[in-house]
Design brief:
alpha+beta; ten-stranded mixed sheet; 10 strands; disordered N terminus
């Protein structure tokens, strides 16, 4: 079993770290799919020509992705099954199901066909694919895998009709609802671990909040709109921000965030407020839409965390009766960074926005699916490698692999295998990381660069 290929035999068990071996149970389509996944995990890229320098293998890979019998559903379903097993066998108090989207811009690749609009830059229309992901992590922030993966573009929807005249099933917002429904369907009714849906401001829309509340789902969603409150929508109703401003301060909490400009970690002291609110049916929903979906006013909790520079308004179904519960809501929302980092692995590590297949949209999506599965494993490895000291390096690496970095850096080779975190730090150093007492943990790009060097070093 080799970490350079992320394994050729055994399973990536995200939960039981005593069996944290890596195999290909997440893909069982055929030998070709497994071989491509192994190469993806070894090379950490998505360009076929870079992955397969052998002309025959490159041609076989192209033929595989273009084969009409190869579909994203068949490729990803085994991974869903493995993620469900990890969730059900987890001993966590809850599982976070984090939803988000990334846009993959293929505008400058004219050889690609069937690509739709994904946005505009000035007056220039951008073409590509939007990927909607549902990533699950446990209460200790350990990644468990994907529970839903969808691909779409704006050209699939009738935009000539005003958005207010279209139902939610005719808008791109439907994928947030679909992600929740698909996850619940895959988990079944025998899942005893609570699932908490987490989303950023893009998830703040009534058509999603209503089924979440109606079905008694647990959720934490950052508010995007300063909504009117009340049983029914009418002029003069108090806005959400006004109600929170008038609420008393219930406590304070220290959080650590990364500064956008300097990329440095900053500690903030946030004041906490919370209240129970009622949201009416929005006025943009017409009578037919309201009656067809049986929409009505919904009650939920709002948590307000702020200082002089930052503020978060979070909509949630979780209890807010004391300061400890408020802090847990904030901490759960902060865990949303997992999907940001996961998408960074996809775009930075696997460079999925540079896929160049002279074929159909379906072929591109097939490659995106395998890259997403592989990125999920790499993200778990990076996360564990930043902090895990209990897992021995020989659990995930071959002996010649973990020893190779000591040879490269001309350091004494330990008699026993070091912790996985030690080996991962050496790999980060190969990517340019300089460890020190004040240094922040190595980032995803650093690890990716390090693995590009580590693979040939180990095999040499």
């Amino acid at each position: 079993m080799s970490i350079c290929g992320l394994g050729s035999g055994a399973t990536l068990d995200f939960v039981n770290k005593e069996h944290a071996n890596l195999d290909l149970k997440d893909v069982r389509l055929d030998k070709r799919a497994k071989h491509i996944l192994q190469v993806l995990q070894k090379q950490l890229g998505s360009c076929i020509r870079r992955l397969f320098t052998n002309e025959k293998e490159a041609r076989q890979a192209y033929d595989f992705f273009c084969n009409v019998k190869v579909t994203k559903e068949r490729l990803i379903e085994p991974h869903y099954e493995q993620t469900v097993n990890r969730i059900k066998s987890s001993q966590s108090r809850y599982i976070l199901a984090i939803q988000d989207q990334i846009r993959l811009n293929y505008t400058h690749h004219p050889a690609k066909h069937d690509l739709g609009r994904i946005g505009k830059t000035g007056k220039t229309i951008q073409y590509g694919i939007i990927q909607h992901s549902v990533l699950c992590v446990d209460d200790s922030n350990t990644p468990l895998g994907l529970m839903d993966l969808s691909f779409f573009d704006f050209s699939e929807f009738e935009t000539e009709i005003h958005r207010d005249q279209r139902s939610v099933t005719e808008k791109t917002r439907r994928y947030w609802i679909d992600g929740l429904n698909h996850m619940r369907s895959r988990l079944g009714k025998d899942c005893s671990t609570p699932i908490i849906t987490v989303a950023d401001r893009e998830g703040d829309f009534y058509e999603w909040l209503y089924p979440l509340v109606s079905n008694k789902e647990a959720f934490v969603i950052r508010a995007q709109y300063n909504r009117a409150t009340g049983e029914v929508f009418k002029k003069g109703n108090k806005k959400l921000k006004t109600i929170l401003d008038e609420s008393p301060v219930l406590g304070e909490m220290e959080v650590t965030i990364q500064d956008v400009a300097s990329r440095e970690m900053r500690a903030l002291r946030l004041k906490l407020k919370a209240t129970r609110i009622t949201l009416p049916v929005p006025k943009h929903l017409n009578k037919e839409q309201t009656q067809a979906n049986q929409y009505g006013a919904i009650e939920l909790n709002a948590v307000y965390a702020y200082d002089g520079e930052h503020e978060w308004i979070l909509l949630t179904s979780l209890p807010i009766e004391n300061q400890e519960q408020l802090q847990e809501v904030i901490s759960i929302y902060q865990s949303r960074w997992h999907i940001e980092d996961y998408h960074k692995v996809l775009k930075t590590g696997y460079q999925v926005d540079e896929i160049y297949l002279h074929s159909s949209r379906e072929a591109i999506i097939n490659l995106l699916v395998l890259a997403s599965i592989s990125a999920c494993r790499l993200y778990w490895l990076i996360y564990v490698g930043r902090s895990e000291v209990e897992i021995s390096a020989d659990t995930l690496f071959e002996e010649f692999e973990w020893k190779s970095v000591y040879v490269y850096f001309n350091e004494p080779i330990p008699v026993k295998a070091p912790p996985i975190a030690t080996t991962m730090q050496y790999i980060a150093r190969l990517g340019g990381y300089k460890p020190s007492k004040r240094a922040q943990p190595p980032g995803i790009k650093t690890f990716w660069t390090g693995f590009q060097v580590f693979t040939p070093i180990a095999h040499m």
